[in-house]
Each structure stands twice: as structure tokens, then as C-alpha cells.
Amino acid sequence: MVTEQRFGTSRVTLVQGDITAQVVDAVVNAANSSLLGGGGVDGAIHRVGGPAILAACRTIVARIGRLEPGGAVVTPAGDLPARFVIHTVGPVWRGGVEAEEATLERAYRESLSRALEAGARSVAFPSISTGAYRFPIRRAAAVALATVASVLEDGADLDEVRFVLFSGRDLGVYAETLAALDG
Ligand code: AR6
Prior knowledge:
By secondary structure, the protein is of the alpha/beta class.
């Protein structure tokens, strides 16, 4: 199984695990437009990270209102081992007729931009949109990995972009997809 590949001077790695346990500079939250919490990854990040993250989200909401799908904002990481949380909103899958792939690509690009602006050198992503938002896993993996690879090949100054997959099945899909990309 291919769980690591170099792009430019950076590494893309794949692990099975819990996003809240990752010792990296920035973890990405699969949030919703309210930025006020939810289930899945979002629930876990707020539960483990504590109230400082929600407080920071409320401040952002007071300034910008809702965060549209494809956008990303940064907060401190509270009690998580990471330094920052990048909150992004993936698309809800509606059968592929609403440019969901383009929105998912934007969510990854914007998240990496926020991470770089914050000075992060390592970033951990969950599989955005493939839980409650029902984006098909194979299509999501293709968008996620191709987008990250493209940003890294364009010279983004990062050491590692890690994908943290909850299930062994999802890890297998991401590994197959990574193997098919040229490093
Ligand atoms: N670590 C890593 N991956 C996880 C974890 C975890 N702790 N928990 C779940 N996953 P989802 P979405 C996997 O639903 O589809 C929330 O309510 C999960 O198995 O978290 O973008 C938000 O507030 C799946 O493979 O995110 C939004 O309303 C993947 O992470 C909505 O869900 C994403 O599942 C966002 O839905």
C-alpha cells in the first residue's frame, strides 16, 4: 500500500487515525457554514480542543458572518496538540450537478493558503465532505490528492501534508489514488 509520496520538496502521507491526535502544526476541520460546531470531525475537534476554539470561531463569525463552502479560516487549536485549526467547509454532495468537485478543490486550496499564512510546516487533513456531506469517497480522494499535489509541486513551503483517514477502507482508497499520481 502506498502511504507516502514526494511532491516538490514536500511529502504527502496517509495514516489511519483520529485527526484530533495529530502532532502537526495545523489540523483541518471539516466544518459547516455556521462555524459553531457539529458532528464527525467538527464534533471531535471542539470536544478535544475545548472552548477556546469555539470562542475564536464566534469572533470570526461576528466579523464575516457565515463561511461559504470552499472557504477556510484559521483559529488557535486550544487543547489539541496542533498549533492551529483551519476550519473549512466542503460541499454537500448533490449528485455532481452543482460543481461539487470545484468547491472541494477550493476547500483544500484555501486551507493550505491559511496554513501557509500562519507559518505552518505540517498540515493534517481529514477526508473533507465524505461523511455527513456524502461526497463519494473515490471522487473525493482524487480531488483531495490531486489538489494537494498540485499546490506542493508549485513550490508551497511545507514539509508534510498528512491525510488522516478514519477507516481502513478509506485509507485503502486514498492509497490507491496516491499510487496512481506521479510524484
Ligand atoms: N478523525 C478523522 N476522521 C474522522 C473523525 C476523526 N475524529 N471523525 C470522523 N471522521 P464528517 P463532512 C471521518 O461528517 O462530510 C459535521 O457535522 C468520517 O468518517 O466529519 O465534511 C460538520 O459540522 C468521514 O470519512 O465531515 C458539518 O455539518 C470524514 O471524516 C458536516 O459534518 C468526514 O466526515 C461536514 O460533513
